[in-house]
Amino acid sequence: MATVRRKRSEPFSLLQRDPGPWSPLLLYWLATLGIIVVFGLVMLYSASYTTGYLRFGDSLHYIKSQVLCLGLGLLVMIAFSYVDHRFLRKMVWPGYIVCLVLLVLVLFSTPLNGCRRWLRIAGQTVQVSEIAKFEMILLTAHLAAKVPKLEKLDPSRSGRVPVRAWLQQRLVRELILPLLPLVLVVALLIMEPHMSGIVLTTAMVGTILLLGGNGGIITWVGGAAGVLLLETVLQHIDSIPYLQSRLDGWTQDLTKMTDQTLQSLYAIGSGGVTGLGLGNSIEKQLWLPESTNDFIFSVVCEELGFVGAVLVILLFVLFLVQGLWLAFHAENRFCTLVGIGIMAQIAWQVFCNIAVVTNTLPNTGISLPFFSSGGTSLILLLAEMGVMVNIGRNGERVRQERRRAHEEQEARRKEKTIDLASARKARAES
What we know:
Mean pLDDT is 83; it is low at 1-5 and 151-156. Helix 4 (92-105) packs parallel to helix 6 (163-191) and helix 12 packs across helix 13. It is built from 13 helices and 4 strands. It starts with a strand and ends with a helix. It is 67% helix and 3% strand. It has 430 residues and is mainly alpha-helical.
């Protein structure tokens, strides 16, 4: 009969005075993050100074706000790098309830472009969906990590799990239960409506379960089926007018293409191999909508060309590979899944943003991490980076402790071997 393994809860505190040593890879990862952030600030200033001057009479309008949020975000990042991950895990359910309350409150806010996505708090606008993403990473990782694993199988069944027990474990415990909290969040996002938020949140949760091994072959089959059926589903969505208009504009026919996508392709095409030069974009002069946010990558392509676009992509790839290495070498399964979720958010946002500006995907309004303007997004992204720092330092501490324990065990074994050899020699001499 199958047995399950449950771990006792570990003691925790709000802050860790010393989460652990700094590994070389963690420092390299932080250096890559620093390069991306600085690169993003330079490109945001280049993409926004014309728009800021023409719309607000201040060329520094966007960059000042971004730098202010960056400073606040770095403080939040430092704070979260010392927050005990066990405390975060204890707070996932209260955080989820707060997140649901905020998602309900935003439905009563003043609509902007037909959507209700922002709450005004202390004179500042906050996009609640960004908070929901962070919360769903923590909650999904918690639920996926707490699933008891089958440890021993019935020897009389030749090591095979009964079908009923296998389905209950793989389908119910490892998939359905971790996905239930997502249903309420998605339902509230539909009411805003916020389709890009739904896509990203669902993709992040799915990636955590997929790479975390939850559901086994069922998750892989479901993910493959979702990818194959995505285009068919999109073609049959007609309940939301603004979404349908964007899907109708997802075409190769330039006469039917949305203005955003059309101007984006003009910007990318005019950039060529080496670009027009930093600050020399033409499309950013009110031709390209959302040049400071969703379509900032088009400005990168126009000013820095194919070379600049590849450089941005390579930086993010390096950042993601380093981050996933930190996640898979974390202290425990919960930390590993949190790290996977955070890196998945960055990966999906980068992929979707670049796919949108190149007309590979329909216009979904997804920002480019650390490049696009947006205070809420930047602060929460840096908070997540702080969590990654904590995960990396704790993981390095555990590895060093295990290495020392192994070395001590090897030393004791060698001493014991030497003592036995000395005793045998003494007996032989006597």
